[in-house]
């Protein structure tokens, strides 16, 4: 039997549906070229459904999502829904329930793309952030005492389990070990000088697990220093491993130095379960329905999904096609400034794919 996959598609809110539509065009083209079958199963999770029915992620949908090969997500976030409801009820719930304990964020400058970092080239901006994705400040443990009074106290608990830290750090070592580059360098990003309990755990785990990876060189940076280096000398990084909150922040900086949210893709990974891939830019309501948003981040997320499904040939073809489009076609990666519409950019990628010689799967 040939290779075949069942992909749950959650276009979601705002510009999500527009960018996912382009991603699905590319998926149809690349699956044909690479010789695998895909069945796509649409889900209408998101703000509109919540406003109509009050449901975020019904249990029966969650159960179905546990059975697919992967999830392809557009964006979650709606201007008429109070912040937190959809994020916690859909996005974070999926990450937690499906135990997608890694948030993988490549920071890669594609050829022809403008970066705000003066004189930096694609060779110098090419690293990956491994963000812990199921613990830390994101677990939602906490509360308010004497709410609304001048004596109010608010707690938000930062959870760091040995198991959670270890599996994340181990994933990062494995990824670093398998990189093609000569560097094989893994940087732990934490704040051991202040968070002397939680980040002492991270440091001990980092050193202990590292003993099993003699070929990977270990590096450490406090988060505040690390963001300076990301701007001044991004070439010093190859793989960065960090906690959920720091990872959230530094990957938005990463998106900016790689040319913006128009190209930034990410994966929520459970290596033994169902993973979910998304453009990290959010729902951009002000651009929704205008056919001006950049779909390359969603197309990049599709590439990551296929790589994860071990369709390496197809993933490589997408990467190559995107490079061709950024280097020879787009004027800018910003919404409305690309020189093409959203659907035209999707077409350009499909066209570039068609001109590539197929790579073995
Ligand atoms: C991201 C997003 C989410 C996060 C939000 C929408 C909850 O910013 O994927 O980085 O903070 O993880
Ligand atoms: Mn974020």
How would you sum up this structure, described in words?
The chain is built from eleven helices and twelve strands. The protein is α/β, with parallel strands linked by helices and 361 residues long. It has two domains: 1-104 and 260-361, 3-Layer(aba) Sandwich (Isopropylmalate Dehydrogenase); 116-133 and 164-257, Rossmann fold (3-Layer(aba) Sandwich), CATH 3.40.50. The strands form two sheets. Strands 2-1-3-12-11-4-5-10-8-9 form a ten-stranded mixed sheet, with helices on both faces. It has a two-stranded antiparallel sheet with strand order 6-7. α1 (16-34) links the parallel β1 and β2. α1 (16-34) runs parallel beside α11 (342-355), α9 (296-308) packs antiparallel against α10 (312-328) and α10 (312-328) packs across α11 (342-355). The radius of gyration is 20 Å and the shape is globular. The site of manganese (II) ion (MN) has 2 residues, from α8.
Give a brief description:
The protein has 361 residues and is α/β, with parallel strands linked by helices. Helices cover 40% and strands 19% of the residues.
- Based on helices, strands and strand pairing, what is the structural class? alpha/beta
What CATH calls the topology of the largest domain is Isopropylmalate Dehydrogenase
CATH class of the largest domain: Alpha Beta
**Judging by the overall fold, what is the CATH architecture of the largest domain?**
3-Layer(aba) Sandwich
Bound chemical compounds: 3-isopropylmalic acid, manganese (II) ion
Rg over CA atoms: 20 Å
Query: What proportion of the residues is helical, as a percent range?
Result: 25-40%
Instruction: Provide the number of structural domains.
Output: 2
Sheet with the most strands, sense and barrel status: 10 strands, mixed
CATH superfamily name of the largest domain?
Answer: Isopropylmalate Dehydrogenase
Give the overall shape, derived from the CA principal axes. Answer: globular
**Distance N terminus to C terminus?**
15 Å
Number of helices in the DSSP assignment: 11
Overall mean pLDDT score? Answer: 97
Work out the number of β strands.
12
Strand order of the largest sheet: 2-1-3-12-11-4-5-10-8-9
Helix and strand run: EHEHHEHEEEEHEHEHEHEEHHH
Measured by DSSP, the beta-strand proportion falls in: 15-25%
Poorly predicted runs = none
